[in-house]
């Protein structure tokens, strides 16, 4: 048995730190299984080139646990190593056999993973590592290499009657969970689920029920089906995942079935995009549009990132734009750098290209769906709307594409593109500053009275009830020329679209002062009071929330800021031209009756916006009954 020291040099240790310094201990299994896959793929490549004599035989990779011996073995039947190669690749830490192989077989390098040096991650969970290997080369002898986590090693002969490599981990006391079947199977399902070489983890029992086929005498019950249990190989992975196949060969059911494989508990997706590009970078994958509907519960970590079918992460926010993290599915690209810092990812040119490509493909898919079947697109809008609006807010390029298919819905259920909406409201909703004024409601039920008042003036009222709509409206105002939006409760109906018209005030200055003082005492600190000449038919008292102040508060709330110290800013508008003000307030000589009537009108305005409750509501009802006799 020879002894020696592993060669660790300063010029080669830094690439290891940069590429393979993992924060998650469990990553060791991904690295070792990936190495086994690489070794098997290399052997298949050589066989295709005629450099392997005889049959390849079985190429399945085995994961073996020996709880008594406290070992975990990763066994492949791949290319194997000679003693010289063991010394070269295991004792000189920074030399990657994968890179050597890529250099030699550049034309077929796409099958090679980028995890060649991950072998040393084994020492995160093992206090001793054995490697038993035999090269595929004719006449090669088996070799055993042993290292106990320091620069010293042993190398000698071994027994092995087939080519390939066993990596035997002697699990350390603080990592004994990796000797449990459930733990290892969970990690294999996570990291090896779609590797291109079969991964076997023991066996499993398949149950089949065989129906009774004989004759049953009259009056007798048919025997129960026979239960047949069969022990079969427990193959962990799907070696040919859907995203690696030609889209032309796939059906809708294939895509839906694969979605169920990825997300067994999820609702069926609305539709999907199959990504397949090999220039100027390599990228395959399938992105699904899930149903997101109601609240702003943005489901992160639903896109899985792979590199040559090796699972990397489900945290892809550095690779795809934030709004695309609403999607589900798989992205597979060998061109995305792995095991490096997020800042490196953000600066990487390939990542930027991939981000732009995915954004473009998503926009093209949505545009084609809108163009091909608008009715179906509108039916899906409750689920699509959040996604499209989020994208338009966060990505300028997506805004430019999305404005052609984003839909604005009004209170009558009619959908319009931005351009269609412009044309529809231009005649009646252009203000004195030549701006188009979009009027909207945030709650159709609560604001029904205000919506009706706006519609009576011929205004089209949009529905913006989702949390995403506040920033979306701001984006529209910033991007769309001469366009602004106001909520139905932001002004009196006649002032939602400001015109140059001036109405005559039917109250004298003294009467206006009297009314102002009276209502100021009633309203107190709940808001400000203003007497304005409105249409005679408009309500005598109206409550509005100035658009700017309300919207600013909503944005602060959306950002998680505490706004409890800033009460709602409301204005109480007294209609100087409504005869009720003169007849039931100013005409009353008794101060008590005048104040009581004014309070009733104020409470009526509160009630119209569902802002009246509790004792105030009871007092209002009692007063109303009294007035009715």
Automatic annotation (TrEMBL):
Looking at the record, the residues that make up the Histidine kinase/HSP90-like ATPase domain are: 24-175
InterPro entries according to UniProt: HATPase_C_sf, HATPase_dom, HSP90_C, Hsp90_fam, Hsp90_N, Ribosomal_Su5_D2-typ_SF
Tell me the keywords, alphabetical order: ATP-binding, Chaperone, Cytoplasm, Nucleotide-binding, Stress response
Q: Does the keyword NADP apply?
A: no
Q: Name one GO molecular function term.
A: ATP binding
Binding residues for ATP: 31, 35, 76, 81, 165, 342
Answer yes or no on keyword Membrane: no
Pfam families cross-referenced by the UniProt entry: HATPase_c_3, HSP90
Looking up NCBIfam families in the UniProt record yields: PRK05218.1
Mind telling me which PANTHER family this protein's record contains?
HEAT SHOCK PROTEIN 90 FAMILY MEMBER
Similarity remark: Belongs to the heat shock protein 90 family.
Entry protein name: Chaperone protein HtpG
Which species expresses this protein natively?
Answer: Neolewinella agarilytica
């Amino acid at each position: 048995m020879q002894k020696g020291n592993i060669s660790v040099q300063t010029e080669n240790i830094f690439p290891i730190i940069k590429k393979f310094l993992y924060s998650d201990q469990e990553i060791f299994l991904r690295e070792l299984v990936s190495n086994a896959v690489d070794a098997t793929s290399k052997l298949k490549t050589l066989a295709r080139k005629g450099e392997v004599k005889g049959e390849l035989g079985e190429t399945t990779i085995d994961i073996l646990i020996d709880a008594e011996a406290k070992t975990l073995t990763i066994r492949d039947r791949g290319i194997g190593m000679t003693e010289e190669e063991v010394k070269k690749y295991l004792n000189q830490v920074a030399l990657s056999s994968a890179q050597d192989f890529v250099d030699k077989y550049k034309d077929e390098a796409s099958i090679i993973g980028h995890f060649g040096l991950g072998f040393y991650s084994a020492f995160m969970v093992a206090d001793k590592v054995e490697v038993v290997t035999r090269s595929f080369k004719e006449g090669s002898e088996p070799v055993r290499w042993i290292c106990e986590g320091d620069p010293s090693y042993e190398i000698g002969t071994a027994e092995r009657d087939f080519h390939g490599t066993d990596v035997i981990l002697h699990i350390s006391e603080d990592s004994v969970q990796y000797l449990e079947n459930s733990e290892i199977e969970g990690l294999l399902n996570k990291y090896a689920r779609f590797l291109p070489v079969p991964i076997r983890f023991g066996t499993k029992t398949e149950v089949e029920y065989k129906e009774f086929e004989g004759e049953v005498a009259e009056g007798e019950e048919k025997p129960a089906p026979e239960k047949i249990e069969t022990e079969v190989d427990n193959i962990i992975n799907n070696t040919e995942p859907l995203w690696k196949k030609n889209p032309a060969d796939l059906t809708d059911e294939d895509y839906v079935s694969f979605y169920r494989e990825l997300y067994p508990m999820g609702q069926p997706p609305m539709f999907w995009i199959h990504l397949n590009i090999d220039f100027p970078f390599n990228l395959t994958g399938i992105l699904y549009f899930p149903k997101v509907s109601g609240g702003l519960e943005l489901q992160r970590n639903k896109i899985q990132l792979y590199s040559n079918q090796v699972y990397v992460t489900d945290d892809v926010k550095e690779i795809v734009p934030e709004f695309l993290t609403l999607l589900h599915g798989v992205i597979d690209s060998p061109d995305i750098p792995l095991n490096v810092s997020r800042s490196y990812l953000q600066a990487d040119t390939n990542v930027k290209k991939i981000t732009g490509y995915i954004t473009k493909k998503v926009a093209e898919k949505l545009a084609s769906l809108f163009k091909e079947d608008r009715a179906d697109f509108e039916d899906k809008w409750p689920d699509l709307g959040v996604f499209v609006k989020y994208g338009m807010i966060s990505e300028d390029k997506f805004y430019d594409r999305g404005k052609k298919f984003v839909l604005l819905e009004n209170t009558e259920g009619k959908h319009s593109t931005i351009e269609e909406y412009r044309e529809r409201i231009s005649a009646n909703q252009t203000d004195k500053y030549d701006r188009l004024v979009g009027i909207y409601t945030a709650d159709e039920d609560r604001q029904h009275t205000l919506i009706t008042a706006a519609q009576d003036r011929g205004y089209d009222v949009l529905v913006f009830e989702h949390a995403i709509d506040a920033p979306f409206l701001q984006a529209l105002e910033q991007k769309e020329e001469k366009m602004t939006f106001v909520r139905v409760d932001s002004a009196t109906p006649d002032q939602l679209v400001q015109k140059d018209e001036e109405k005559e005030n039917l109250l004298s200055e003294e009467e206006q002062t009297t009314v102002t003082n009276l209502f100021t005492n009633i309203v107190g600190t709940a808001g400000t009071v203003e007497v304005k000449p409105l249409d005679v038919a408009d309500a005598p008292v109206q409550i509005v929330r100035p658009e700017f102040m309300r919207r600013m508060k909503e944005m602060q709330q959306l950002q998680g800021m505490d706004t409890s110290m800033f009460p709602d800013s409301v204005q109480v508008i007294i209609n100087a031209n409504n005869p009720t003000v003169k007849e039931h307030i100013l005409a009353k000589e008794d101060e008590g009756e005048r104040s009581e009537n004014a309070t009733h009108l104020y409470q009526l305005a509160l009630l119209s916006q569902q802002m009246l409750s509790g004792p105030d509501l009871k007092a209002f009802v009692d007063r109303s009954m009294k007035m009715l006799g």
